[in-house]
Structures are given as C-alpha cells and as structure tokens.
Amino acid sequence: MAKEQGASPAYLLSLHKLNDLKGIEKLQDGSLRIGALTTISEIERSEDVRRGWAALAEGADHLGSPLVRNRGTLGGNIANARPAADTAVPTIALGGSLTLRSLSGTRTILAKDFPRGPGLSVIKSDEILTEIRYPPSVAYSGSAYYKLANRKVLEISTVGVAVWLALEKPGGPVSDVRVALGAVGPTPILAESVRGILVGKIPDEARLLKAAGAACSDARPIDDHRGSAWYRIKMVELLTLRLLRIVLKRIEDNQ
Length: 255
Prior knowledge:
By secondary structure, the chain is an alpha+beta fold. It has helices at residues 40-45, 47-52, 54-61, 66-71, 74-79, 88-93, 193-198, 205-218, 229-253; strands at residues 24-26, 32-35, 97-102, 105-110, 115-117, 120-121, 128-134, 141-148, 159-167, 174-182, 189-190.
C-alpha cells in the first residue's frame, strides 16, 4: 500500500522471533487456536486441522507452492486482505475470529468483518494480528474448500468457495450453514442467502440446487484476465453445489 501511495515506510519490523505467535493448539473447550506466525505448511500437515476444520487444511493445500507454504503464514495471508486469499475464505466459512493487539489493548473481531477492500482492512496502524481462533467442531458437521484457478500452483484463484454445514441429527435438517466466496467481490463474501434456503430444512438435492443458486445472488464479480464475471457466477453455483454434496457425504461417513 505504501508503494501505491507513493511513500516508503519509515521502519520495517520483523516478527519472526516472536514464538508466542506460533503454533497450533486445540483448547479444552474444543476450539482451535493458531498463532498468526504459524506457517501454511504446518497447517497443511496438522491432523487436528484436517480432521476438525478440513476447509482450512484444504485452503492450505492450494496456497502458492511448497516453498511459499514453508515461508508464508496464516496471519500474513489473512492480514493481506486479498479477496482471493486461500486461508481467509475458509476461515470466514468456519466462523473464525481474529485477535488484534497493540500497546493500548486487545480486541477480537470476526474474520468476516476484517477486510474492507482489496488490500484494505480494519487493522489499525499500531496493531498486529496475533492469533486466529476457530469454534469447536460440533457433531454432525463438516467443511470443504475448493480453489478454481488457471494453474494448480502459484496462481490466484478465479473463484474460491468454502462451505461449513451442520445437521441437527444424522439425516436430519440443517442446523446451520456458512458459505464463503473468494475472488468474486472486493472482499471475501459470506453468502448469507444460503442460510435462508437451508437452515431448518432437509438438504435434499432440490434444496441444494436452490442454495447454490442463492449463493450466486451474493457474488459481485468483475471481468479480468482470469475470468469474466459471467463465468465466475456460473462457477460459484457449480462449486457451491459440489461442496455442499461433499460436506454432506463427509458428515455421513463420520457418523
């Protein structure tokens, strides 16, 4: 942003020796705490993450290349506030929250409220992102993420979709659902329209088709060199439907 504003930063600070900002920890209440300096590779290799918060692990799988994942961090990918960020989109779908800390105190905000435009966020100039927390993985729930891109590695997504869904009981109605969309707006989008279609309803095929169509109405894509707005809308519908089916199958398999 300093480059775009025609100014250079007065200071450049490295946080890499702050070990308190590293690590993956499953807390006593079942929630997950990940330090902001935890590398993408560590998330990718974590069995706890893959078992309880699969969408985040799958976002890590598709970020950059092995070299990028070894150096890049969860906090960096989220704080960068890009609408296609491969861990930010799953974090929003999973209901994650961010802890921002400064000399004057600490505040916690939902991940969905953090970005406010491409490369822009609500973080203040004296704050750093210290940790990301994810709610407990509840019974009869599951998640998934898919990145559509022109190449398999080292590519910004054309569309990214993350889904988290919970059932009231096996084969029962949906108790809650979150669908997050990446690269189809100036920020990652939480497709609120999907909740009205699925919550309290049995997720049969007709209902899933309707929910996938509803997700399209929340997307706000543009035309660019990676894909047209029309194509992105179509892919939001297709990927949302595909991921809803995948998540329901995962819930069924884990019963």
